[in-house]
Amino acid sequence: MDKTTVKVKKLNPNAKLPTYGTEFSAGADLYACLGQDSVTISAGETVFIHTGIALEIPPHLVGLVYARSGLACKQGLAPANKVGVVDSDYRGEIMVATHNHSNEARTVKNGDRIAQIVFTPYVSATLVECAELDDTVRGIGGFGSTGK
Fold first, then answer.
1. 21 CB contacts (<8 Å, ≥6 apart)?
2. Is the dihedral of CA 13, 49, 27, 70 positive or negative?
3. What's the pLDDT tens digit per position in 51-67?
4. CA 116 to CA 77: how far, in whole Å?
5. Using CA atoms, how far apart are residues 91 and 35, in angstroms rounded to an integer?
6. Cβ contacts of 31-34, under 8 Å, gap ≥ 24
7. What does the alpha-carbon distance between residue 79 and residue 68 come to, in Å, rounded to a whole number?
8. Beta-carbon contacts of residue 13 (< 8 Å; ≥ 6 apart)
9. Residues 90-133 pLDDT 10s
10. Cα 144 from Cα 148, distance rounded (Å)
11. pLDDT at 1 over 70
């Protein structure tokens, strides 16, 4: 398995570096680094959870911040934007806009695993305006059009 080095800077001495749960985990866990012991997120509320870290992601990679399946399924806490995008030229603190999808308040404690980040390559496209697009069998069929 290929490994890529991503530099991590602690912006807070109490921050935890991201960790992989197993040898073959695709996502590295991100940890809450709060100014207090915990924060409570009311039902339907979104709160920015600090991680206390900044990353130096190599060019042509992006950090995608996803929900942790256990936290999302069992407690209803997941990134508000579904997938966070951390570009390689961003050097600020990694924060997770965490939304409480449950019907009751949830508490995030300092040091809790709050999301996971996956580093993946991407392609930058050259976007060219044109008058017509090539035809396909699907054509303009949108949502649900291939399931008929």
1. 29
2. positive
3. 999 999 999 999 999 99
4. 13
5. 21
6. 31/111, 31/112, 31/113, 31/114, 32/108, 32/109, 32/110, 32/111, 32/112, 32/113, 32/114, 33/110, 33/111, 34/108, 34/109, 34/110
7. 9
8. none
9. 999 999 999 999 999 999 999 999 999 999 999 999 999 999 99
10. 7
11. no
- Token reading at 101: 């999808």
Residue 136 tokens read as 């396909």
Q: What CA–CA distances, in Å, run from 41 to 54, 75, 82, 100, 125?
A: 24, 11, 17, 6, 39
Q: Which of 98, 57, 52 is nearest to 78 (CA)?
A: 98
Query: Which pair of structure tokens corresponds to residue 120?
Result: 């993946």
State how beta strands 113-121 and 28-31 pair: antiparallel
Q: What size, in residues, is the chain?
A: 148
